[in-house]
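Reference record
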Amino acid sequence: MSQSKVKVLVVDDDEDFVSAVKELLERNNYEVVTAFSGREALQKSAEIPSIHIALLDLVMPMMDGFTLLEKLKDIIPGLTVMMVTGQGTVRTAVDAIKHGAFDFITKPFDKDVLLNKLEVIRKSYELENRLGELKQLISQKYGFENIISSSKIMKAVFEKASAAARSNAPVFIVGDTGTGKELLSKAIHLGGDRSSKPFIAVNCGAIPKELLESELFGYKKGAFTGAVRDHEGLFIAANGGTILLDEIGEMPKDLQVRLLRVLEDYKVRPLGHTDEVSLDIRVIAASNHSIDDLKNKYLREDLFFRLAVIVIELPPLRDRKSDIPLLIDNFINTFNLKYSKNIEGFSEEAFNHLYSYDFPGNIRELENLLEGIIAVSPTNKETITYKDLKAHLLWQKPKTFEHQILSLDKLEKFALEEALRESKGNKSRAAELLGISRDTLYRKLKLFNMQ
């Protein structure tokens, strides 16, 4: 909201006062509407849109300022009111606040005092307007309508996710890495009643075991060595909104017990505190493990069923290849704008090879692939060729494995073996190569009997 758009209604039966205030405010970029009685003020407030602030004289014939205040609030619910009075007493101030006024000024008024009070209100409106614009931009970026797809399989996902957004039930999203689990979580959050509240995502596999509990549930200063100040924790920080527990399968079993209790009572007690904090929160869990593996291997069964009230399975990109042209167009437009390039599309040969590729990294891999190609393309280049594609498509399936499908467990074990080989047995380095914490690495090694 620009400064010139803040509209002030000035109501007083003293014409000289109204004229003086009008002249002062207009010099300071306010738009001013004047009225000399309560009845005239009500008429103008009904006819003139977007009045933000009202300056009301307390003592007027026929209708006093408090009565007018209540009637104006009915017409303009978000109106901010300042009372004007010649009786600047504490009792007057208290009565004004009780009736819903923001503040009051006394006659004769100090120009600087009035302008300072109005400036506080104006900045509040500007901030509120800016927040509204930001919320709209976020909704436009992360809403369901902006998840790109035309496939039948994704239509069913959207229908289920839209229904989930209208409820407060816990949601469990499962899908391969790069399928868009966090994006769908944000869309569910924005599609529900909590859209104006916080959305906080936490990767349970990226935080070391010894820190995860305090990060989630908070702690009091002095609760342990290094706790030099209070920390509210992510559950409390997300209160009123949504928390996404990403890679929930990597959470240690002993911590799962505490999480289960929080989800049963919707109360949390930070470490070192004696009192519990009540939670009003939407919980979404996500994992790249299969439902069977989550239920039987990675999660306590009781926790799984507590989280999996609504289960949404995101298909891999190889199962929704009809979406590839749409995704390509979107990413080309995005990265042309980002890198000031003029790519129009793919050659037929390049597109055919891209379409036949399985994309083990799913949408994220396709996005990174196109960004890498477009970022280094000459500004006059218009078509991505097969040569460009080959230079950036790093994961080429060896022909000897062309017809061999490995299970996720075998792929995971293979990745662990390769990381340990590459790091010459240095587990910290291996964890870094895999993009996971050391605790997660040790749990994986134990799971596959590789210790």
Observations:
- The first strand starts at residue 7 and ends at 11.
- The first helix runs from residue 15 to 27.
- Residues 442 and 451 are 8 Å apart (CA to CA).
